[in-house]
């Protein structure tokens, strides 16, 4: 709909500021969302066999050994949901982006829905990286308070060591440190597959005098940067993948918060055929209704723009669930400055 006044101005472009590019989020590839058709998350743990077959004396009964135990683990779910509202003033007067005299109308509702979906994707990504970096998800907001601990091995912290921390580039040894971190997988049955760090952490690694020295005879001599840090790491540690991850979000104070903080390293290990982790999405009445509630993300649009004393349109999105870590000892964490 056109507004009722002329204008000699012309808008030729719409600039959209984006901080969180959800297409670049990798949490769902590490910890995929899976449906859980229940209100509580539950799974079984089969423990490994220990020891070896006993020596035996002919004519006697073989030694009896116990079978590996099985344990059932349970955890509650968590609820993530909020509502964005377009009130009467915005519905009536909000101008469509890129125009001079067109009312936004339904376009405003569409943009609000996109905003709400982005917020939900940020929350899911945040939950995954809180688990991976902090070994816990601690919530204390909006009258909701709980903590989930995942039981990973302790974080290796060298941030207080003035010679070993990675910011001490004259004396640090990033490659030696990563080698030791990966050796921690001995005895777990898993192998280190991927090392995650952000570009600030990688930048200090490639400035290390020892790291540079090891690459003297390579093609990277003289022009190492975070742009080619991954292949440089791969040259020195070919059996492990490296990912530099810089995604994050703006918090309520408009401060950028990276999902993977500066100085933090996460190593992901796996074993063939074993699921390491997932995001268990539990059932919601918003999906399927009262008779057949379903898991997954949900989105609701409540249009009260025409039959209320104070018209509005609400857009509500959310998901119910939490990450599940089946093999805590397959994850290694470190703080290097």
Give the number of DSSP strands.
16
3D shape: flat
Order of helices and strands: HEEEEHHEEEHEHHHEEEEEEEE
The percentage helix is 10-25%
Secondary-structure-based class equals: alpha+beta
How confident is the prediction overall: mean pLDDT?
90
Termini, distance in Å? 56 Å
Rg from C-alpha positions? 26 Å
CATH fold descriptor = phage-related protein like fold
How many structural domains can be distinguished in the coordinates? 1
Strand content: 25-35%
Q: What is the annotated CATH architecture?
A: Alpha-Beta Complex
Q: Could you characterize the architecture of this molecule?
A:
The structure is a single chain. By secondary structure, this protein is α+β, with helices and mostly antiparallel strands. It has a single domain (22-45, 69-335), classed as phage-related protein like fold. 21% of the residues lie in helices and 28% in strands. The protein contains 7 helices and 16 strands. The strands form 5 sheets. Strands 1, 4, 13, 14 and 15 form a 5-stranded mixed β-sheet that branches. A 5-stranded mixed β-sheet has the order 7-16-12-8-9. The chain is flat, with a radius of gyration of 26 Å. The model is unreliable at 1-14 (pLDDT under 50).
